[in-house]
Design brief:
Layout: H1 2-15, E1 20-23, E2 27-30, H2 31-37, E3 62-64, E4 67-75, E5 78-83, E6 88-92
Antiparallel strand pairs: 1-2, 3-4, 4-5, 5-6
Length: 94
């Protein structure tokens, strides 16, 4: 029973990772909040970005400080958070 509880807690903790990233100088940085605080020009894409979808190579991604894991771009005035290693959308708000 204790193993199942630990597994559930670990799964919940891992689910929260896409919105947090470690920064060297100031602890945890909320990637989404960083994108909101540092908007960039909207990008026109052929289709609306969807969670899990790959972002075309032609879309320039803004960086989140020195974070090597996540980047972002704006689509229709909203930040879209992207995993830099796979270019998959990991967060987009409706």
């Amino acid at each position: 029973m204790m193993t199942r509880t630990r597994s559930l807690l670990l799964a919940l903790a891992l689910a929260a990772l896409p919105s947090l990233a470690l920064a060297q100088d100031n602890g945890a940085v909320n990637v989404y909040q960083y994108a909101v605080d540092h908007p960039v020009a909207d990008v026109a894409t052929p289709v609306t970005p969807l969670l899990g979808a790959s972002v075309p190579q032609g879309v320039e991604l803004a960086t989140v400080g020195d974070n090597p894991v996540y980047g972002y771009f704006y689509h229709e005035g909203r930040p879209v958070i992207v995993d830099l290693s796979t270019r998959a959308v990991v967060r987009i708000d409706d």
